[in-house]
Amino acid sequence: MKSDIEIAREAKLQRIEEVAGRIGIKEDDLEHYGKYKAKLSEEYLKRIKDNKQGKLILVTAINPTPAGEGKTTVTIGLGQAMGKLDKKAVIALREPSLGPCFGIKGGAAGGGNSQVVPMDELNLHFTGDFHAITSANNLCAAMLDNHIQQGNELRIDTRRIILKRCLDLNDRVLRNVVVGMGSKVDGFVREDHFTITVASEVMAIFCLAEDLKDLKERLSQMIVAYDLDGKPVTAGDIKAVGAMAALLKDAVRPNLIQTLEHTPAIVHGGPFANIAHGCNSVRATKAALSIADYVITEAGFGADLGAEKFFDIKCRKASLTPSAVVLVATIRALKYNGGVAKDELSKENMEALKKGIVNLGRHIDNLHKFGVPIVVALNAFVSDTEEERAFVEKYVHDAGCEFSYATVWEHGGEGGKDLAEKVIKAAENAKNEFKPLYPLNISLKDKIATLAKEIYGAGGVEYEKKAENTLKGLEEQGFGELPVCIAKTQYSFSDDPSLLGAPEGFILHVSDVYVCAGAGFVVVMTGSINTMPGLPKHPAAYDIDVDDDGNITGLF
Fold first, then answer.
1. Burial (CB count <10 Å: 0-12, 13-18, 19+), residue 92
2. What is the pLDDT at residue 11?
3. What are phi and psi of 511, to 5 degrees?
4. Which residue of the set 94, 218, 283, 362 is catalytic?
5. Which end of the chain, C or N, has fewer beta carbons within 10 A?
6. Rounded CA gap, 307 and 298, in Å?
7. 485-509 tens-digit pLDDT
8. Which of 1, 47, 58 is nearest to 423 (CA)?
């Protein structure tokens, strides 16, 4: 069996101007990054801003497992299937982070015959957007420390510096560091921290900004520290915004590439969903909606994280109304939730399937609360049996959802035609009563409690004293009406990754809270989640290499 990278390498790509031309984008509207990648020009983005908007389709999934769910693969396959049905469709995805690529998860270009290409370039440096975001964040951090070194006119409390430096790699030893050691000219000695780039507020701002002006306004509001009186100090206060924006000027334009079947894909931004809001950029989504009749996008990890944040944060802030949601599951992952070990998942096990399918059921119940039509896509594996498939299909129908068995990994767009037809029907005909889960005028604690009980199934919430005090302070500072962004393990509805299925009655533990004032949400840290991942015992980096002809191997 060929690997994903072998399939991608053997594909015959079309020049990016050909791909763009099929959706009405002229070559002069592109800024080329080689033959097969381009950015949409600023002039073009302004010109299409008031176009009629297409239908927005969200693809989400059950909680991720080591068995894999294939959410991105289904997203891409669905977009390709739309093309086979002669529908004008554009896929809108996030850019992959280097952390997972070299860690344990791998890349984020889909798989099999449902991939976006060039796969290796996308998974690595792509058009340099993440490098620009990393540089902008770290420039701000350097200017903050320089302000303190040069006399500290703003009276910044060096014990209350909020901004972390960032790096788009997994590196656990950088979570907590000491900086400023050496002589007097090397700065003040203090504890500092690193986060992975995709968890930084600059990334969140980048993905929620409507345009360059909005980006600068949001950057200027980003709190970087507090002064000795406890008042916030922003990136605007330390005069960092202009230089940061200069670094992001090119990156802020969305990128256009293609699938293996030449379906246009706009790929831009990439915040993690277990820490940040987990969605591609607002600019990319709105550009796609102005171009296509159907836009297929995804939100990271399970629906308890990515989909909830897509609805409660991105859609609310960008005034977006999704027309349908696709919930991806696999029989293998459901059996894993039922207690089957990874190396036993290929064997039929109805007992485990019946036990583990409650994870799918909880996600269906949760998505119903947002009022959007649901289509469940069962992503096919060769080990699936007819009895297992029939059981899942009946379960889904009994839950009031459409069901489709998607073979997009093996057959590409052809294997997603049934799914596409059902999604189109849901988007066009089904009753849509989309609404966020909670209003903004309730307290931050009430918002957290709503998510804990309504989405996660918790019996209550416990706060560490530090988190309790921070919540009180944020409301006193005027941040009480922001939405909350829960940072939580992606593997469970709870904050304990070992609790599979659909646990109930547990206590959600809140360890810390901080505001992303520029992005416009309050991050709530739960359990043992942290913002800088580490590498596993056998990182994917061990298996990645380049041959003598410059071909990358081992990337997936």
1. buried
2. 87
3. -95, -30
4. 94
5. N
6. 8
7. 999 999 999 999 999 999 999 999 9
8. 58
Q: Are 71 and 59 in contact (CB under 8 A)?
A: yes
Active site residue 425: no
Any catalytic annotation for residue 453? no
Give the confidence band of 82 by pLDDT, cuts at 50, 70, 90. Answer: very high
CA distance 387 to 366: 27
Distance in angstroms (rounded) separating the CA atoms of residues 23 and 83: 11
- Lowest-confidence segment of 59-63, 65-69, 180-184, 222-226 by average pLDDT: 65-69
370 given a catalytic annotation: no
Please confirm, yes or no, whether 134 is among the known catalytic residues: no
Q: Is the per-residue pLDDT at 127 higher than 90?
A: yes
| pLDDT at residue 9, rounded to an integer | 82
301 catalytic residue (yes or no):
yes
Select from 71, 106, 107, 65 the least CA-distant residue to 91. Answer: 71
Residue type, 259: T
**CA angle at 257 for the pair 253 and 258, rounded to the nearest 5°:** 150
Q: What's the pLDDT at 104?
A: 84
**Distance of alpha carbon 164 from alpha carbon 172, whole angstroms:** 14
Burial of 386 (0-12, 13-18, 19+ CB in 10 A): exposed
Residue 384 has pLDDT above 80, yes or no: yes
Q: Is residue 273 flagged as an active site residue?
A: yes
Q: How many CB atoms lie within 10 A of CB 12?
A: 6
Whole-number mean pLDDT of the chain? Answer: 95
494: DSSP letter? S
pLDDT-derived band at 8 (thresholds 50, 70, 90) equals: confident
Q: What is the pLDDT of residues 133-158, one digit of tens each?
A: 999 999 999 999 999 999 999 999 99
Chain Cα centroid distance, residue 554: 24
Q: Which of 310, 409, 479, 493 is flagged as catalytic?
A: 409
8 Å CB contact between 102 and 170:
yes
Q: Is 94 annotated in the active site?
A: yes
CA angle 483-485-487, nearest 5°?
165
Rounded distance, CA 436 to CA 308, Å? 9
Query: Which one of 37, 55, 71, 488 is the catalytic residue?
Result: 71
Give me the pLDDT at residue 208, please.
97
DSSP symbols for 437-460: SS-TTS-HHHHHHHHIIIII--SE
Residue 4 pLDDT grade (very low, low, confident, very high; cuts 50, 70, 90): confident
How big is the chain by its Cα radius of gyration, in Å?
23
Say if CB 404 and CB 376 are below 8 A apart: yes
Catalytic residue among 22, 105, 425, 435: 105
**Of 427, 97, 525, 47, whose CA–CA distance to 272 is shortest?**
97
What one-character-per-residue DSSP string does 324-359 give? EEEEEE-HHHHHHHTT--GGGTTS--HHHHHHHTHH
Residues 6+ away with beta carbon under 8 Å from 242: 216
Q: Report residue 269's pLDDT band, with 50, 70 and 90 as the boundaries.
A: very high
Is residue 531 part of the annotated active site? The answer reads no
